[in-house]
Amino acid sequence: MSKLHDKLAALIPPMRDEIRGIIKEHGDKVMSQVTIRQAYGGMRGVKGLVCDTSEVPPDKGLVIRGIPLKELTDKLPEEIFWLLCTGDMPNKDELADFQKDLMSRGEVPDYVWKVLEAMPKDSHPMAMLDTAILAMEYESVFRKRYDKGMQKTEYWEPTLEDSMNLLAKIATLAAGVYRMRFDKGARIAPKAGLDWAANYAHMLGLPDPTGEFANLMRLYMVLHSDHEGGNVSAHTCHCVGSALSDPYYAVSAGLNGLAGPLHGLANQECLAWILMVNEKFKGSPTEDQLRKFTQDTLDSGKVVPGYGHAVLRITDPRFDAFSAFGQRVAPDDPTIATVAKVFKIVPEVLKKIQKIKDPWPNVDAASGCLLYHFGMSEFSYYTVLFSVSRVMGMASQLIVSRAWGEPIERPKSHTTKWVKNFVKTA
């Protein structure tokens, strides 16, 4: 057994007892009230889920297991996954054991590549990634163990195995999709001695003489790893997983949600807007030009992509981390320079609009420009990068929920007729 398995085996029994105690003593206490506006508005703000891996306070941004994101930007993704699962950072031996374990699981079955090769040449990269994950469901340890019969208290163990296998293979898969879909040549094998994100950068095959693209991949994987349980990808994965669908089914479902333009596609829309601005002004605009252009954009009924967030009421700390990286490696790059100017000008314009609750940038306002700087100009692939990272959050949430025995998700729905009658009698 791995050190991560042993760590979780020690943590899970007291966690189960604590949660059962909370339910037994306080299970009937009201945690949330739901308005009709929330019911029709995507359940925005409804307190109806439990997620122990991370939280997103509106005034702080992402907090992973009690640690603010700004304190984790120098960590490796492997450390973050361990933290998500256990609540603790791995020590040196635990990290080395985990990295060795991941490397040993990384080979993608040949039949998966054949499935991808059979798809239309111009398939969307996200459809290719999700299809590959579903194809690998054949490998599920959880399904095989469940079919043979096992105790409910053991569900987390094969879930951990599937999650580890999926995490180990996802970067190889995603890099293979990139090279196949965009005619980059033969797949590149993982390289011994590299950490998980650096290997992803290596397998993508983009030139990286300074090593900064590998650094970007490390940062990118950390920043997108988790964002509590209510976002579309996490909640979809959680909902499917609550039916005891194995992690291949559940993660693939979550990534199908991530593929939507209101979720994971936002970063490419932000980059497209920045490039459009630079093209219009023949380079990075002046602050006055940008101020006027922003106001004209808003007056025409359009929005500035990357500004505003469903939960946050501050600058997204993930944007801060990307922005700092850009200013360190390429402050004179036209796209990165414009991102910096937009950050200075757009919030002051948005603040004048009373109905806008959050005038600050989110993570998508900066991430695409950094990818573009390093030569990744295939916009449709950007969500795949997001997906590779978010597998960490979705998988860790599955492990934790299986560990304490969460039941199938089944909220109650009502018809509009019921709502109209309720309004009359309320």
SSE topology:
Blueprint: H1 3-26, H2 36-40, E1 54-55, E2 63-64, E3 67-68, H3 77-86, H4 92-104, H5 110-117, H6 125-135, H7 141-148, H8 156-181, H9 196-204, H10 212-223, H11 232-242, H12 247-258, H13 266-280, H14 287-299, H15 317-329, H16 334-350, H17 364-373, H18 382-404, H19 416-425
Helix pairs in contact: 3-18, 4-8, 5-6, 6-8, 6-12, 7-8, 8-9, 8-18, 9-10, 10-15, 10-18, 11-12, 11-18, 12-18, 13-16, 13-17, 14-16, 15-17
Written account of the structure:
With 426 residues, the chain is an all-alpha fold. The protein has a domain at 266-373: Cytochrome p450-Terp, domain 2 (Orthogonal Bundle). It is 59% helix and 1% strand. It has helices at residues 3-26, 36-40, 77-86, 92-104, 110-117, 125-135, 141-148, 156-181, 196-204, 212-223, 232-242, 247-258, 266-280, 287-299, 317-329, 334-350, 364-373, 382-404, 416-425; strands spanning 54-55, 63-64, 67-68. Strand 1 (54-55) and strand 2 (63-64) form a beta hairpin. The longest helix is centred in the middle third of the chain and has 26 residues, at 156-181.
Trace the largest sheet across and list its strands: 1-2-3
Beta-strand segment tally: 3
End-to-end separation in angstroms reads 57 Å
Query: How many whole angstroms does the radius of gyration measure?
Result: 22 Å
On the 0 to 100 scale, the average pLDDT is 95
C-alpha geometry? globular
Number of helices: 19
Secondary-structure-derived class: mainly alpha
CATH class of the domain at 266-373: Mainly Alpha
CATH architecture grouping of the domain at 266-373? Orthogonal Bundle
How much of the sequence is in beta strands?
under 5%
The major pleated sheet works out as: 3 strands, antiparallel
Q: Percent of residues in helical segments?
A: 55-70%
